Amino acid sequence: MIEDGRGVDISQIRRQLRLSVPERVREMVHAANVMLDIQRTAQASIRRQNR
Predict the structure, then answer these.
(1) Per-residue pLDDT tens for 1-44?
(2) 24-49 burial by CB neighbour count: b if 16+ within 10 A, else e?
(3) CA distances from 34 to 6, 28, 29, 30, 51 (A)
(4) pTM of this prediction?
(5) CA nearest 15: which of 5, 6, 28, 33?
(6) Is the dihedral of CA 2, 38, 36, 39 positive or negative?
(7) What is the DSSP string of 1-51?
(8) Cβ count within 10 A of residue 12
(9) φ and ψ at 7, to 5 degrees?
């Protein structure tokens, strides 16, 4: 089983739980920063298209 009933990737959760707390936080901060970069890029693209 790869996903639970909600579509959550169980293997990813297990991998995260094997990390130490500082490692887990570091990975979560990195993921959040990547998402913010994607959001900023998308918003800039939309602004350029609307000119």
Answers:
(1) 788 889 899 998 899 999 999 999 999 999 999 999 999 999 99
(2) eeeeeeeeeeeeeeeeeeeeeeeeee
(3) 24, 10, 9, 6, 26
(4) 0.70
(5) 28
(6) negative
(7) --B-TT--BHHHHHHHHHS-HHHHHHHHHHHHHHHHHHHHHHHHHHHHHT-
(8) 11
(9) 85, 10
